[in-house]
What we know:
- The chain has 154 residues and is of the alpha/beta class.
- It has one domain (2-147): SPOUT methyltransferase, trefoil knot domain (Alpha/beta knot, 3-Layer(aba) Sandwich), CATH 3.40.1280.
- It contains five helices and five strands.
- The longest helix has 19 residues, at 129-147.
Amino acid sequence: MIKIFVIGKPKTKFIKSGIEQYLKWNKKYDRVELIELPLSTDLNKITSEEYKKQDKEKFAKYYLPDVFKVVLDERGKELSSIEFANKIEKWRIGRKNISFFIGGPLGHHEEIRKNADFLLSISRMTFTHEMAVLLLLEQIYRAFKINNNEKYHY
Ligand SMILES: C[S@@+](CC[C@H](N)C(=O)[O-])C[C@H]1O[C@@H](n2cnc3c(N)ncnc32)[C@H](O)[C@@H]1O
């Protein structure tokens, strides 16, 4: 099973409908679940460090040792789709879940990055959290297709 945790509910209409579409398509291959965690309190009322700490605490109960934790971050490692598909196969060996973590407007707390099993960048550019969810879901779908030798990936 694959779980995607995101801080902040995706709201933009076309992105939401893309997310729903890929969640539906991915069902053919495995359970892929999106878990939306609430945004923290008003950014103007707390420091950015405190804000990131609040986000870290929201991830804490899902940040478990028996789960392979992939943290999405633009400072992470970039992979080709084929490399990502291979990693997905490898990360699942002996484990029930792979969990992906997508940060809020300020990004991740340093500790979340430090304790990740893999820090994944989808590009050196910065995307909104909701765009990151959509792009990740498409790459997961592509990985399923690649790993099943199905036509989609060129
Ligand atoms: C608006 S971005 C946060 C940007 C923040 N300034 C930072 O330094 O991380 C929100 C989240 O989307 C995801 N994200 C955005 N762009 C990404 C990229 N190029 N690669 C991987 N994840 C990305 C990350 O999980 C990030 O925490």
